[in-house]
Amino acid sequence: MQAKSPRISVIIPTFQEGRYLAKVLARVAEIKPPIEIVVVDSGSQDNTAEIAKQFTDKVYLIRERGISKAKNYGVQQASGDILVFLDADVKPPKDFAEKVQGAFNDTTIVGATCHIVPEHPTLSETVFFRFYNLLIRICSKFKPHSRGEFLAVKRKSFLTVGGFDETMPCLEDHELAHRLSKLGKFVYIKDLVVCESLRRFRKMGFFKVVGTWITDYVSFMLRGKPVSKVWSPVR
Fold first, then answer.
1. Rounded to an integer, what is the distance from CA 194 to the centroid of its chain?
2. d(Cα 55, Cα 57) in Å, to the nearest integer?
3. How far apart are CA 23 and CA 168, in angstroms?
4. Domains of the chain with CATH codes
5. C-alpha–C-alpha distance, residues 40 and 170, integer Å
6. Is the pTM here over 0.85, yes or no?
7. Distance in angstroms (rounded) separating the CA atoms of residues 125 and 142
8. How many helices (H) and strands (E) does the chain have?
9. CA atoms within 13 A on the CB side of 182
10. Which of 20, 26, 118, 164 could form a disulfide with 89 if both were Cys (CB 3.0 to 4.6 A apart)?
11. What's the CA gap between 179 and 88, in Å, rounded?
């Protein structure tokens, strides 16, 4: 008798994402057999919630801002054995659920990230992201790191470690990956590629964004928390 594939829930936190949300939801909604989609909105004033309701009946509004709060709330509403957290401005491939399920067939795996590439990058951005993905892939063998654009977690393990740290304004995904790795394997899915928007780079500038990443990461490694007090949305 063939083992039943683990059920996947996709959880997307949103705030003022009316410009981007339909693209990612349309892509996820195409997956067969259908997977559960949970959208948690933190008080958008645009048409984010209305767009989400065109693709799923699991759309929730919360009063408090905070990406970790939204993600944790989404888990409470989700029913999947595997929880996949996506940003609202990414483009996952149509077979991403199949590849996630394939990775989690190894019962020792508790979490996973993947190859994340930018849409319409400049040459310098292409070089940087190739290096960054290689670095994350190498580090996943020793000290796991994950970005918010894509993070897959075994539900049981997520609940065991207590979910996302809601005091973290950023790096919440990396911090969770670190705690999860104490329970089992946190892996890099080599054949899974997710595209991300470069809206933050375009608005703030390449060096400012990368500088902020490095400063927050070094601070987290040394003090257990980032320098940034808030991760401002870019729309």
1. 10
2. 7
3. 28
4. 8-200 (3.90.550.10)
5. 17
6. yes
7. 26
8. 9, 8
9. 7
10. 20
11. 25
